[in-house]
Amino acid sequence: MESYALELPSNPLVNMDEWRIHIWMEKMKQFKQDGSGCEINRDMLASFPLFPGKAPAGHLYPQAFNVRLKTTYYLWVEEKNGRVLLRRKLPSSRKISIDTRNYQMLNGGKGHLLCLDAIKPDGYEKEGRDVTEAEARKILIDYKE
């Protein structure tokens, strides 16, 4: 993915507000394609759905689209018990979760694999391991009851 950091042009003829809008539009274009390119936070998730139609296959955030695909799994981000979790509902209706560490994992950092049955409020840091977003998604998708 091409980086669109806010590199401000030195040309005095460039309108800075238009430049920032251009950068934002490029990030949203990338996000619409595959779910990358934008910072994921509470405000962004609260704005979902952002786009009409169906999400492209393999999109990281299918809930950003207003037409839901029927899949055997569905991952979503949810705030629960003071944590921001990446979650999946299993066929038995049980939910499994990975702690995103307050959105850090969704923005290039590491999350924490929790006990798959439930959130253990005491000492959960000692259980499990740190994972990237890609690892977390694979663990949740591949999990079999």
Number of strands: 7
The structural domain count equals 2
Largest β-sheet summary? 5 strands, antiparallel
Number of helices: 3
Helix content: 10-25%
| H/E series | HHEEEEEEEH
Q: Could you give the order of strands across the largest sheet?
A: 3-4-5-6-7
User: What's the average pLDDT?
Assistant: 80
Shape type: globular
Please identify the oligomeric state: single chain
Q: Which runs of at least 5 residues are low in confidence (pLDDT < 50)? A: 1-5, 117-126
Task: Give a description of the structure.
This protein is of the alpha+beta class and 145 residues long. It folds into two domains: 16-67, no CATH class; 75-142, no CATH class. 23% of the residues lie in helices and 21% in strands. The chain is built from three helices and seven strands; from the N terminus they run H-H-E-E-E-E-E-E-E-H. It has helices at 16-34, 42-46, 133-142; strands spanning 51-54, 65-67, 75-80, 83-89, 95-99, 111-113, 130-131. The strands form two sheets. The protein has a five-stranded antiparallel sheet with strand order 3-4-5-6-7. Strand 3 and strand 4 (83-89) form a beta hairpin. The protein is globular. The termini are far apart.
Which key terms come to mind for this protein?
single chain; 145 residues; alpha+beta; 2 domains; 5-stranded antiparallel β-sheet; two-stranded parallel ribbon; 3 helices; globular; disordered N terminus
Helix-strand layout with pairing:
Elements: H1 16-34, H2 42-46, E1 51-54, E2 65-67, E3 75-80, E4 83-89, E5 95-99, E6 111-113, E7 130-131, H3 133-142
Parallel strand pairs: 1-2
Antiparallel strand pairs: 3-4, 4-5, 5-6, 6-7
